[in-house]
Amino acid sequence: xxxxxxxxxxxxxxxxxxxxxxxxxxxxxxxxxxxxxxxxxxxxxxxxxxxxxxxxxxxxxxxxxxxxxxxxxxxxxxxxxxxxxxxxxxxxxxxxxxxxxxxxxxxxxxxxxxxxxxxxxxxxxxxxxxxxxxxxxxxxxxxxxxxxxxxxxxxxxxxxxxxxxxxxxxxxxxxxxxxxxxxxxxxxxxxxxxxxxxxxxxxxxxxxxxxxxxxxxxxxxxxxxxxxxxxxxxxxxxxxxxxxxxxxxxxxxxxxxxxxxxxxxxxxxxxxxxxxxxxxx
Amino acid sequence: xxxxxxxxxxxxxxxxxxxxxxxxxxxxxxxxxxxxxxxxxxxxxxxxxxxxxxxxxxxxxxxxxxxxxxxxxxxxxxxxxxxxxxxxxxxxxxxxxxxxxxxxxxxxxxxxxxxxxxxxxxxxxxxxxxxxxxxxxxxxxxxxxxxxxxxxxxxxxxxxxxxxxxxxxxxxxxxxxxxxxxxxxxxxxxxxxxxxxxxxxxxxxxxxxxxxxxxxxxxxxxxxxxxxxxxxxxxxxxxxxxxxxxxxxxxxxxxxxxxxxxxxxxxxxxxxxxxxxxxxxxxxxxxx
Lengths: 281, 288
Prior knowledge:
- The structure holds two protein chains of two kinds.
- Chain A is an alpha/beta fold.
- Chain A has one domain: Rossmann fold, CATH 3.40.50.
- Chain A is built from eleven helices and ten strands.
- In chain A, helix 3 packs parallel to helix 5 (149-161) and helix 4 crosses helix 5 (149-161).
- The longest helix of chain A is centred in the C-terminal third of the chain and has 18 residues, at 179-196.
- Chain A starts with a strand and ends with a helix.
- Chain B has a domain at 248-288.
- By secondary structure, chain B is an alpha/beta fold.
- In chain B, 49% of the residues are buried.
- Chains A and B meet through helix 6, helix 10 and helix 11 of A and helix 6, helix 10 and helix 11 of B.
């Protein structure tokens, strides 16, 4: 197993209640989780299960109430360390319109490295590379507000990459996108992971996206209730449904036909069905 | 009987008369009969939001007419006002629009604006709460103390309480977890069945659309590109893909089997239906 990038040790997190004297609200309870360099981890769970809180602990937007978060050897227990961690772990959120700051695509991507005080020639190089890596280089001189949702999200991802982060955490990046936008963003994420070795943590409600990860972490009521390969996790159909989740349609179909529950993708489903249909053409 | 909604030769231009003029919807014609349940799909920027904003006069056509229950909504001030009550628009993330201090007051806001008597307002709030799955004990709570899914149902109840003849949902289940999505789909179906009113659903989820509607309207490049039954539209998967859309995963599975030469049906949009058809094929003893 490769080196650990993010380590959560006995992490609990409580939100302050709005009303005075009310007890703090628990969001995460005694979480232990290691994310290794180069992994692609999907995090699933129903609304309110704590997965966004988990994401924000991983890049030190929050500090844990109890326990320790360590990112590449740095403990997230001070502002200063938080800044260091955020240079290693970048974040992309759900709404593309809330993440764009500049009026030209390449200026938007340059915003992060400029703030880090990177040399102008180096910024130019990083911006070009980052835009190419998400297939948005041809749009570098466009106005971001005129782009589609999937294009805007890819610009946001490029902005994170230009800061040369080791890891990108994406919190439901495709929730507001149309089908093609979802495919574009998923392709970009997979490419960054496979070709550049960037560690990916993807929080999502779409089971077909989680299928593409190396590992799926399932959360409920602030705890991790499953942590395994997509094939193992999605073969537990009743377990997933009981926790407000689902399985891909391909998995469901094969299961209904008693063809096993370890089918994950359209390709696998088609070949499984072809094998039982045999020569019945 | 007049149709619930008629769009005739509708064109809408943003910034008309300037060099920036751009037509967001061009010469669209749609007729939706009373009691229909219709889906609208189209990529981001295709013009579908512009289109639905005309259904109750939030936008004024640059050209063309909008008839609600047979009346041109721009023919008088009163007709326009009535269209706001007859056609309810439930926008994306409607929970962001909650503002009252109790759930009851929030749901009552629409009927109050309609100047209904207070006992009628109360009846409608209770009825709509039931339809939208808002539990009675929530009514005196602050909407801000509810979970995201509950807030969304409160916002939906607020529109249902106006008892619109046409209810338009724009991305009703965006951001919800799979169970939240299933629950909301069931809620919309039950609402349609129980009230018999016209329902229009805009969605990026082909799976949800397949489960909910009888007819699909496809918007592409500011025009109506397709308008037909679910099977008519989803049988054109290549065209849909070229428009930035897709077909449900299960439909794709059957299309691939067909392409491999298997004699499977192509009109499969839900997993249950697909499993039934395959069981029949396997039951005939043609399998291995």
